[in-house]
Amino acid sequence: MKKPVVLYKKLSPPLMARLHEHTQVTLIDDLGDNGLAQLRAALPEARGLLGASLKLDAALLDLAPQLEAIASVSVGVDNYDIDYLTRRRILLSNTPDVLTETTADTGFALILASARRVVELANMVRNGQWTRNIGPLHFGTDVHGKKLGIIGMGRIGEALAQRGHFGFGMPVLYHSHSPKPDVEQRFNARYLGLHELLREADFVCLTLPLTPQTEGLIGAGELALMRPESVLINISRGKVVNEQALIQALQNRQIRGAGLDVFEREPLAPDSPLLSLSNVVATPHIGSATYETREAMARCAVDNLLAALAGERPPNLVNPQAYRH
Ligand code: DGY
After folding, report:
1. Is 88 assigned a catalytic role?
2. For ligand 1, is residue 236 a contact (CB within 6 Å)?
3. Would you give the end-to-end CA distance of the chain in angstroms?
């Protein structure tokens, strides 16, 4: 008999067909109030879940006593209580690797857009305000040759370092829980303490996961260490930064600007003070959002789910202690 699974993210027709072939699918198209009610109704029978961008806490998962596996269509796993899942021997999988390059592209897009004021000046043209040749008032700052500071030297951090080092001739500085000699060799990168990096880097890029240790890592004290010419780029999770402190630092021009793809609360409220600041480039969590990469992530999640439901170890298992051999 096919196992019941709940999808809370629509997949492409070939992936849907694959899932239908092996499982009994309930699709929840939209996670509004109706969708959540549908999800609750389907949980008691569910053996597998596949989706993204939904906090699946114990209160919800207690409704799913048969659950064997969750395949998250994301690399980040901050929406899950891993200890709880492991206790219940529910296999959690994610989609690393396939999104690394695309997410690093997003990071670089934000670096370039922030430094060269691309959004602000493109809007000026769009609004018919380009009435004479631009002067120093509209100049940006160089990217090439500037110091690229990366906090969190995982896969995405490395892909960012590669772009900076080989593409833009940027000296690479990094901070992570431990030094990485291979990264230092490949990108001529220098390991620094967090505070030293904040003081030295021209572009401070956050690429680390959200965990209890990284929540609020960048607050008023850390922002105060950055130089007035430096720019903060966040492609990790909004809660790694204290958003109120960032707003103040930007309003006071304590730092040059920020390129932000992630926020404390998403979607970002239309009345967020961040949106009234011309030195902010804000994008709607587009890190991995290309057709190719989102399809690759979905494929990876389907592979993970089908493996788990067949009793095999999913290729991208997050909580190996939950796996019974
Ligand atoms: C990820 O994969 O974690 C992206 O940030 C999407 O949530």
Report:
1. no
2. no
3. 22
Does 33 score more than 90 pLDDT?
no
Choose the CATH number for 3-98+291-322 among 3.30.70.20, 3.30.260.10, 3.40.50.720, 2.60.40.10.
3.40.50.720
**Paired residues of 191 in beta bridges:** 174
Q: What is the mean pLDDT of residues 178-202?
A: 98
Average per-residue pLDDT for the chain: 97
User: Active site includes 266?
Assistant: yes
pLDDT at res. 325: 65
User: String of b and e for 87-117 (b: at least 16 CB within 10 Å)?
Assistant: ebebbbbbbbebbbbbbbbbbbbbbebbbeb
Say which CATH class 100-282 falls into: alpha beta
Does residue 109 register a pLDDT over 70? Answer: yes
> Domain limits of the chain?
3-98+291-322, 100-282
Q: What is the pLDDT of residue 104?
A: 98
- Choosing from 47, 163, 237, 299, which is the catalytic residue? 237
Q: Nearest C-alpha to atom 7 of ligand 1 is from which residue?
A: 74
- How far apart (Å, rounded) are the C-alpha atoms in residues 63 and 67? 9
**Same fold across 3-98+291-322 and 100-282:** yes
Which residue among 73, 99, 105, 260 is best mutated to probe the pocket of ligand 1, counting the most ligand atoms within 8 A of its Cβ?
99
Which ligand 1 atom lies nearest to the CA of residue 95? Answer: 2
Statement: residue 268 has pLDDT above 90: yes
Model confidence at 98: pLDDT above 90: yes
Q: CB–CB of 101/159 below 8 Å?
A: yes
Rg from Cα positions in the chain:
22
186 is catalytic: no
| pLDDT bucket at 203, cuts 50 / 70 / 90 | very high
